[in-house]
Amino acid sequence: xxxxxxxxxxxxxxxxxxxxxxxxxxxxxxxxxxxxxxxxxxxxxxxxxxxxxxxxxxxxxxxxxxxxxxxxxxxxxxxxxxxxxxxxxxxxxxxxxxxxxxxxxxxxxxxxxxxxxxxxxxxxxxxxxxxxxxxxxxxxxxxxxxxxxxxxxxxxxxxxxxxxxxxxxxxxxxxxxxxxxxx
Length: 183
Prior knowledge:
The chain is of the alpha+beta class.
């Protein structure tokens, strides 16, 4: 969506309220490097906020929220939730920002020809802010590495192998137990 800021730039108004939705269905991806890999968005992202012009200094404050469905990082169960985040940026016309390096430009929402393109920056922000790991619950036990059984449903019967890194400690404990039984 492109926001028309011409009235705000001409100082015909001081506050521009922002209320709209973006359909993020196309944002789902299978790219394993993306935080959005395997995530589905069943409803549009809600964008609410405002841009305030105070004597030529414009500040944008937005609150964004959307529903998601993603696989649990431990047990792969479908997990639904709501994700919310905020965005605050200074709004400035492109000609004012000429000469700034790329890193400094990230702090600004850039207005071109009186319009502010919102969709691409919001997608980039969603990519950065979205959690890398979604869990169905905090104490999710995951899947058995041998048989693949969901351990949240109970223990499996395959008897997982002990971690070999604990073998030296187990040998000491076995030795202490043997000494205790000899007495």
